[in-house]
Amino acid sequence: MDKRKIILSILGVLLIVLAVFGAKAIIDSNVKEVPETTKVVKNVFVETVENRRVPIIVPANGNVTALKKMELFSEVEGIFQYSSKDFRPGQRYNKGQVLLSINSEEYAASVRSAKSELFNNITSIMPDLRMDYPDSFQKWQDYLNNFDVNSTTKPLPEADSDKEKYFITGRGIQSAYYEIKNLEERLRKFNIVAPFNGVLTEASVNPGTLVRPGQKLGEFIDPSVYELEVAVGKKFSDLLKIGENVALQDLDGNQTYTGTVSRINARVDRASQTIQVFIRIEDPDIREGMYLEAKLDARDEDNAIEIARELLVDRSKVYVVKDSVMVLEEINPVYFSSNKVVIKGLEDGDKLVSAPVPGAHPGMKVQIQEEKDTAKAEEF
Prior knowledge:
Blueprint: H1 2-30, E1 42-48, E2 52-66, E3 69-73, E4 78-82, E5 92-93, E6 98-102, H2 105-132, H3 134-145, H4 162-170, H5 173-188, E7 191-193, E8 198-203, E9 210-211, E10 216-221, E11 226-233, H6 234-237, E12 245-250, E13 256-268, E14 274-281, E15 291-308, E16 317-322, E17 325-330, E18 332-336, E19 340-344, E20 351-353, E21 366-371
Parallel strand pairs: 1-21
Antiparallel strand pairs: 1-20, 2-11, 2-15, 3-10, 4-6, 4-9, 5-8, 6-7, 8-10, 11-14, 12-13, 12-15, 13-14, 15-19, 16-17, 18-19
GO molecular function: efflux transmembrane transporter activity
Organism: Salegentibacter agarivorans
Protein name: RND family efflux transporter, MFP subunit
């Protein structure tokens, strides 16, 4: 009985051992060999840094307006009767030509009536002047002889003494004269003349239209001189000089013009912290309302380069390659434009990574595939 138990025990141990080795063989047969990985080295483009003087060009834009512009408003009421030329937008007038004449016959008649009354008043005092002021009689007689109700009233003769002055004033001559001058001044408002050679850019009325006081009639400009108003950051305003030339271009960049800084506002806008700069433009191809971009030459930055903004990391770092390894260098960005940035802090000869590298990180092994043109200062 004991032998039988011993034999069974030995068989059990053998079965267990065989089971363990069998399981191990099955597991080992299912394990696949992992192929040895090959480390990938990325190719990068670089530029060799060459520090130099970089011009800081500040872009600004705005709409062109005529430097000489006159909005035409009526101060009287009447029918638009006459213009020296066809009163329409685009029409040119020379200085002194009638832009717009409003019918003034009724008012002109009242002015002539007042002048006739003045003439009669002076005539009525002539006998007294002959008797009491014989030395002054002739000058008043000459005044009457040259009096014309259809012409502008001439100044009254000067009194030779206070007594004569009081006499003339007491007869209402002075007050009647100044009343007529007021009437004549208002009569002139029925005619609007061109104050300079220019172009009618807006016409709001046509001949025959009833015009009322305060009504806008049109707009008249001098097309020879224009002005562009732009807003510039306060930090650059002190660097701009009156009389400095400014390069201008349209939105498409197809047309270029030249202007001159004519005025710089002394007040800073509280909200935007910008200052108004006014640029004078004299060019026959300029039209009012055009939208132009100005490139203001603010200053030069020494020992700097210009790069694409997309190369910045955290706004103050860039990647360079040293011994085939990517290194993150701290730099000092001194000016940002829409897609470029001027930076300082790199050494001449540094290999600046010139195109973004996906997944870039400090310490990454890279290979310089092709060296681009040397990093240089370019105008914005």
